[in-house]
Design a protein that fits this description.
Layout (H helix, E strand, L loop, with lengths): L6 E9 L3 E10 L4 E7 L6 E2 L1 E7 L2 E6 L1 H5 L1 H6 L3 E4 L12 E3 L2 E3 L1 H19 L8 E6 L5 H13 L3 E7 H8 L9 E7 L4 E7 L17 E8 L2 H11 L4 H9 L9 H21 L6 E7 L9 E9 L15 H15 L7 H4 L34 H4 L15
Parallel strand pairs: 1-10, 10-11
Antiparallel strand pairs: 1-2, 2-3, 2-4, 5-6, 5-7, 8-9, 12-13, 14-16, 15-16
């Protein structure tokens, strides 16, 4: 019998203007218990103040209460004191001059988080390695600030799994105390700001139920499983093409734990297949949806397939028009037509040569003329698409898996 306890850990960071609070929750999957650890100095959060000095061409970072209480001494030693660094994120006009170094707010935050990460690894009784985290920020934190925050944490070797507002974090922490209330006002007294949020909570019933609401959907679909070995060989040959897309994804505030060249192929194939089915089955593209089954990063559970389906509350979703196309003869016709249509776009050659299309440059050869779908059909916001992964491009046909030969 396997007696090994299975535990997972999750880090949460409240990145405040005055203080930075770091917590770790350990979840025991056997006992369903959660254990909370809070980190800081002498039981209090880390101050959001740091001292930076140039040493050997790079910046040496000091942080903590010693910096806060000995500012004059640190300045005499040649350190530059930086306060409330969070408010400078996303402002391209702010640069900190430290000796001959010119440091952006993003780089400074990265240095601060790297120092905190190193501190946790050395002072804790057990080895604490913070690799991922959920970060709480003010409600008014702009998309540019969130993007720069993710970049800064990435520099420290920390992947931001999710960004939530501080008011929502406060509600989650105290939700048991306000259970039963329909409206909750959250006051977040920060060091430099006061955020007030009004949350409207809608229970499913006036009397607590032991069930959840559900609806019955009718539909039909086609599941396509791809040969994993062939896709692995294609990825080995063409995977480097998507390094820039991976970097764009890191710089955005999107999180996709399945991103890989395989995911880009599967996602694009699903889009092209839906567009072709829409022409043949009579369904609108908005009524056909996708589900991508691609391996999660770091997982041993290999997945390599797509599900194309319709789902509605009435009988219109199960008339058989979609499954009819799964018949061998029909499927072959749809596939050949999809590949031929996918080789050409009215925006070519601009489209197939592009590596910076779509929101945050998260698409390569994919535009509304050839690949994109209505938002209701796509599982990942019409991003991480490349028509060339399926159909190739002029001069490099084997870039497309459907033209590829092992």
């Amino acid at each position: 019998m396997d007696t090994k306890v299975k535990q997972t850990e999750h880090f949460g960071i409240d990145f405040g203007t005055t203080n930075i609070a770091v917590s770790r929750i350990i979840l025991d999957s056997d006992t369903y218990k959660a254990f909370l650890n809070r980190y800081g100095e002498d039981g209090v959060p880390f101050p959001s103040i740091l001292a930076v000095r140039e040493e050997n061409g790079s910046g040496k970072v000091r942080f903590g209460r010693k910096v806060k209480t000995q500012i004059a001494t640190m300045q005499d030693e040649g350190y530059e004191i930086i306060k409330s660094i969070k408010t400078a994120l996303g402002n391209e006009d702010i640069v900190y001059n430290v000796g001959s170094l010119r440091l952006t707010p993003t780089r400074v935050v990265g240095g601060l988080m790297k120092a905190i990460k190193r501190y946790l690894a050395t002072v804790s009784q057990k080895q604490v390695e913070m690799q991922t985290a959920t970060v709480a920020v003010p409600v008014g934190f702009s998309s540019a600030q969130r993007r720069e925050l993710c970049k800064a944490f990435e520099k420290a070797g920390i992947q931001v799994k999710k960004i939530i507002s501080e008011s929502m974090a406060a509600y989650i922490r105290n939700r048991n105390e306000v259970a039963g209330l329909s409206t909750v006002m959250v006051f977040d007294w920060g060091g430099g700001t006061l955020d007030i949020s009004l949350l409207n909570l809608v229970p499913i019933a006036k009397i607590k139920k032991d069930w959840l609401p559900g609806i019955e959907q009718k539909g039909e679909g086609i599941f396509i499983e791809f040969n994993q070995d062939i896709l692995d060989c294609w990825t080995e040959k063409n995977g480097t093409r998507y390094k820039e897309m991976k970097q764009h994804l890191k710089e955005s505030f999107f999180v996709n734990e399945r991103f890989s060249p395989q995911y880009v192929f599967l996602h694009t194939f699903a889009h092209l297949f839906i567009r072709e089915l829409s022409n043949l089955c009579g369904y609108s593209t908005a009524s056909i949806k996708e589900r991508i089954y691609s391996t999660y990063n770091g997982s041993d559970n290999r997945m390599c397939g797509i599900l194309i389906y319709t789902s509605t509350a009435d009988s219109d979703g199960s008339l058989g028009g979609l499954t009819e196309q799964a018949q061998t003869e029909n499927f072959s016709r749809v596939l050949k037509s999809m590949i031929e249509r996918g080789k050409w776009c009215s925006s070519d050659p601009v489209c197939y040569n592009s590596k910076e299309q779509g929101f945050m440059s998260l698409n390569y050869a994919a535009c509304f003329a050839c690949t994109l779908l209505p938002e209701t059909s796509c599982e990942f916001r019409n991003a991480l698409l490349d028509r060339c992964a399926v159909c190739g491009q002029p001069g490099d046909e084997e870039l497309g898996l459907m033209n590829w030969r092992k």
